[in-house]
Structures are given as C-alpha cells and as structure tokens.
Design goal:
The complex is a heterodimer of chains A (250) and B (388). Chain A has six helices and 13 strands. Chain A is an alpha/beta fold and 250 residues long. The mean pLDDT of chain B is 96. Classes of the chains: A alpha/beta (250), B alpha+beta (388).
Chain lengths: 250, 388
C-alpha cells in the first residue's frame, strides 16, 4: 500500500496574522500545516504500518519545509518538495502532481478538502480529473478492504456512503480522525528522513495560468464608540439613542 | 511566545521544533482545562500518560531506556511551556523526570534502569521522590527516616512530607539513612506502592499547586529486597544531585509562568478602560508591564545560558541556585503585579493570574527556598558557609 499526502503550509489559524503595506505579511506571520491536510496525514499513518509507504508532497516556497517536517515528525516516511515561489493555478498544479503520482505510483492520494487560506476546494477534483482516478470528497470515514474503499462524506442534507476502487483521490476534513502530535523522539528522527527537493523545471513547467494582480485586506469599519458604563441607566439611555439614530436598527 | 530578545533564534532546529510542539500541546490541552483541575484540586492521571506518549517525561533519558534523548535545553523549554500552563502540571512532570527517572538513571543498576525507566518515560508508571521531612526541608541531612539491613533486604521506617505525586505514585524513590561501617550514610531506595507498611496520605486544604497532587509518604516497617537499593547512591550529594536537575527545570519553568501573567496583563490593560482610556496608556501601568517584560527577558537569557552550560557539562550547582532563586522570585513578583493590574478580576479564577500567583508562592519555597539559594550562592561567592 502506497499513500501520497498532498500538503500545504498556511497562516496559523490560532495565531494573529500580521499585515504590512495593505497585505498579509507571511514572513512575519506564524505558519502551520493546513489543518485539512493534517487529517490526510493522520489517515495515511493509520492505514500504513508505522508510516511505511507514505510520502508527503508539497508544492510551494522554501518556507513550506516546516510543514513538511511536521508531517515527517508525525510519522510519514519521506517527502517531496517541489520548491517554487510561483503561485500555481490548480490545473497546472494537477498536471505537476499527476507527473509525481505516475512516478510514485500511490494507491491512494489524500488532499485537504479546502485550503485554509484561499478557501479553494478544487485541488482534489482537479487531480482526480488529471489522473482519471475515482474521487471522494469531504470524507469523514474511510475503510479499506483489499482494493475496495468505503467512504462516508458530507452532503448538503446529511451523509452519504460511497464505494469506490483504488487507486483514488480522497479529500479530507474534520471528523475523519484526530490528528496526533509529533512525539519528541519522532521530531528528532524526522530530521534524518528523506526530503527530496525538486523544481518545476524537473517537470517541464515554467509558467502558471494565473497571476496575482493585487491583494487587499477586507476592512470592517468600526466606530470605536465606547459608552462609559459607570452610570448604567444613563449608558442604557445613550445606547438606545445610538441604536435608533445612528445604527438605525431599532 | 513573548521573546523580546529573540532568544529562541539561538536554539537548534530540534529544540525549536520541540518547543513549538510543547507550546501547541499546552495551548490545546492544558490551558483550556487547567483552571477546572485547579478548582477541583486534581491532576488527571491521563494527563501524565499523555505527556508520556509525547516524550515529555524524563525527556533527556537516552532512547535505550525509553526516553527521547533530547538536550537539557530542550528539557528546559518543556518546563517553560508546561509552567506557562500551570506550575503544578510542571511540578508533576519535573518530579517524574528529574527526581525519579534521574536518580534511577544516575544511581541505579542496569536491571533497575531496564525495569523502571521505560515505563516511567511512557507515563504508565508514576513516581515520587521522598526526601523532605516534616521537621524542616532545608536541612535534609537531619532526616530521621532509616533503613536497617534485614537478611538480604532492608526495612524502612520514617515519614516524608510535601511529596508531589505521592498519592498517585506507583513507586517512590525514598532517601533514608543506612548505617554503613558505623556511619550513617544517606541512600536511595525504590519502594513499590504495594509494599506492606507503605502509605501516602493526601494533603488537602492546599491553596497553591492545586493542579498537582501532594501527600506524605509513611513507612512503617516497610521491607524491600536488596534490589530496591540504588547502588550508586551514597551521601547527601545523591539526592542533592537530583534537586539540581529539578531546580534547573524550575529556572526555565518560572519564566514560562511569568510570560503567562505578563501577556495576560498586557491584553487586559489594553482593553480595560477607565476615565475614557485603556489603562495600558497610563504611566504607572506601563511601568509594571515594562518591569515584567524586562525580568522575563533577563530570566530567559539566564535560563538559556544555563542550558548551554548544562549541555556542555560545565554547569555549576551555584549557577542553578542563582537562576532558580532569581527567576522564581521575579515570576512571583510579576504575578503579584499582574494581580494588581487585573484589579478585582485578579482574585477570581476566571482569570489565570491568581492561580499562577498562588502556585508561585510554593515554587519560591520548594526545591530550596529563596533564602537557602541565597546562602548557596553566597557561600560560592565568598567561600564562607552560612548554612552550618
């Protein structure tokens, strides 16, 4: 059984994001393995014997290495990092990943159900399309018997159980499992695991179909009007006036 | 993390990763729950197993004995983060690692190491350390607990006081006087929970370290085999060697608690408004915040340098005394300032401040009181002993 886990590094949802010059300052922000991808890593570890046959694949800048090391510390066997500062569109990425999948010959590929930063859900579908493999999205339960996969996934009005054959692409989400913490011994061992560095050129890719033109931070204007609450009755009166005349909600 | 001088940038990559992991663990599993444990006066047994699973117990122990084999600096960072959560949680981990696993590793036989260390590292066994007696913790040489040879084993009698983890411990490392060639020598013994005559009454009514279980150890004609004796132990220097390990961890841990009360105060004073302005805009408040931030920085730098010495094998116990003495006291003073800055909210356990403050009162006293460490450093500086 060979399992490939596609992983990304995103701003840490638990930390404050820094902004500079009207955009998110990724250099100064705390970054983490995308939580949606982490479910796939955990599932790969549970479906393999001590991580044997598992590989993490990441496409992104040098800083992604921290997230990759995290998956190795969790227990994946090795990793491939296609290092690039280009922001790739999903179709180009799927072509690249198809080439890697053909080299690696995994039986199963885990992809996070949704990117924590861009909210895109397209990657899993695009990769399954590129490979011509079966796909199940938003998976919350997964069992494997031989070549036969049974998966439960969320649909708008409940849950659906689907059956499909390997090889396949599975997109993961909360509820699939409880990802483990790396242990101290595994953190130490992860430094010695194989992390293969590749470039886009190795796969004949030199451009992307999308270009980031501009980024803006969504502003929510606040009046910052604080009512002194020492005199509760007067404060309540003032609040009612403001809600009526300024906010116009009552 | 609050790291004003970017001290963490000087760590190795392993140390940085270990620190990040423990911080994440403390944020996710300790901080959201610890106030409830503290209010109830309990420490879940499962938390010790959880720390064991991650490799946080006795983490410097070599891998062949079930440890993670990390550097002493990494161990210090673990203590920092655990104590940022709660001093009691850190105490439980310190006892297991520095006061139970360390003496077995340093003074134990190969068979004892094989038998106990892997299970202590995984948290499937909990240990405690019996040195202090009720007559006075600062003078352990005056202990009354005795071991007497009995056939090929020993019989232990005496009692120990203020023992972290004792009510939940599966084994106790007990220090007792054993007459050897007409002279009393302090030796260490591993006493199992099921030994007849061994009991561990729990101490109640504590107003500090409530998320940590404390008790006595009572030894009434407790018979143990010859294999209970730690063969490498001999003299007061053996238990003191353990205390140096634990105090080293406390020097880091207290600064973690100081971070918690400082960052809590910073957030609180920036959002708390009086006379139309956040109180953090007031000079008297900024003075307190600046003092706390400065002491955190100094304490962290001292702990970092102490860790470099420990990893290089050049650490001196008087340096440990200086760091424990200073870092705990500034953390305690910082917690008191934080209490003041939080006003009425500083006395409720809705906020973490009073819990840290009360915890640190104990940390200032145990593992060598502030005054005892003053005299240890004083003796080292002057060559004159005020401790006799």
């Amino acid at each position: 059984m060979k399992i490939m886990c596609l992983i990304r590094q995103v701003p840490d949802a638990e930390a404050r994001v820094k902004t500079a010059n009207g955009t998110v300052d990724l250099q100064g922000s705390s970054m983490a393995l995308d939580g949606m991808d982490e479910y796939g890593v955990e599932q790969a570890l549970r479906m393999s014997e001590g991580g044997a046959g598992t590989v993490a694949v990441a496409v992104g800048p040098q800083r992604f290495e921290d997230a990759i090391r995290r998956t190795l510390a969790m227990g994946l066997e090795r990793a491939i990092h296609i290092e690039t500062d280009l922001v790739l569109d999903v179709v180009t990425t799927s072509r690249l990943l198809k080439a890697i999948a053909l080299e690696e010959q995994p039986d199963l590929i885990f992809v996070g159900g949704q990117h924590a930063d861009t909210d895109s859900q397209a990657m899993g579908a695009a990769l399954s399309e590129a490979l011509g493999w079966n796909l199940v999205t938003w998976t919350t339960e997964l069992t494997l018997e031989g070549q036969h996969v049974t998966a439960v996934h969320d649909v708008d009005d409940g849950k659906e159980t689907v059956e499909l054959e390997l090889p396949c692409v599975v997109t993961t989400q909360q509820g699939l499992n409880e990802p483990r913490y790396p242990t101290l011994p595994n953190i130490m061992k992860s430094k010695k695991k194989e992390l293969l560095k590749k470039s886009l050129n190795d796969y004949g890719i030199s451009s992307t179909m999308v270009r980031v033109v501009n980024q803006e931070i969504q502003q929510r204007a606040r009046l910052q009007h604080i009512i002194d609450g020492k005199d509760a009755a007067a404060a309540a009166e003032q609040l009612i006036v403001l809600l009526h005349t300024e906010a116009k909600v009552i | 993390m609050f790291d004003y001088f970017k001290t963490l940038e000087t760590l190795t990559s392993d140390e940085r990763d270990i620190h990040a992991l423990v911080r994440e663990f403390v944020d996710a599993e300790i901080i959201p729950n610890v106030q409830g444990w503290w209010d109830e006066g309990t420490l879940p047994r499962a938390l010790i197993s959880r720390m064991g699973e991650l490799g946080l117990l006795g983490s410097t122990t070599p891998e062949q004995y079930g440890g993670a084999g990390v550097s002493s600096t990494a161990y210090g960072l673990i203590c920092y983060e655990l104590e940022r959560g709660d001093s009691g949680v850190r105490s439980s981990a310190s006892v297991q690692g520095s006061l139970v696993m360390y003496p077995i590793y340093a003074y134990g036989s190969e068979a004892q190491k094989q038998k106990y260390l892997p299970e202590l590292a995984s948290g499937s066994l909990v240990g405690c350390f019996g040195l202090t007696e009720s007559d006075g913790g600062s003078d352990p040489a005056a202990m009354r607990t005795r071991a007497v040879r009995d056939g090929d084993g020993y019989v232990l009698n005496g009692s120990k006081m203020w023992i972290t983890n004792s009510p939940i411990a599966d084994i106790a490392v007990v220090w007792a006087k054993l007459e050897t060639d007409g002279v009393d020598v302090i030796r260490g013994f591993i006493v199992p929970r099921d030994a007849a005559g061994f009991s561990t009454p729990k101490l109640t009514h504590k107003m500090s370290l409530r998320a940590s279980v404390t008790g006595e150890i009572v030894l009434e004609d407790v018979r143990v085999g010859a294999d209970a004796l730690l063969p490498g132990s001999g003299g007061l220097k053996s238990p003191l060697g353990c205390l140096t390990q634990a105090r080293y961890g406390i020097a880091w841990g207290a600064i973690g608690a100081l971070e918690a009360v400082y960052t809590g105060s910073l957030e609180y004073t920036k959002t708390r408004t009086t006379f139309g302005k956040p109180i953090a805009s007031r000079q008297l408040v900024q003075d307190k915040l600046t003092w706390m931030a400065t002491q955190h920085t100094l304490g962290l730098l001292m702990a970092r340098q102490l860790g470099l010495h420990k990893d290089a094998g050049t650490m001196h116990y008087a340096q440990v005394s200086m760091a424990k003495r200073n870092n705990v006291r500034v953390a305690l003073q910082g917690a008191r300032l934080a209490r003041e800055l939080h006003g009425g909210n500083g006395i409720t356990t809705e906020y973490p401040i009073i819990r840290h403050m009360l915890n640190l009162e104990t940390v200032d006293t145990y593992e060598g009181t502030h005054d005892i460490h003053t005299l240890i450093v004083g003796r080292d500086l002057t060559g004159l002993n005020a401790l006799e």
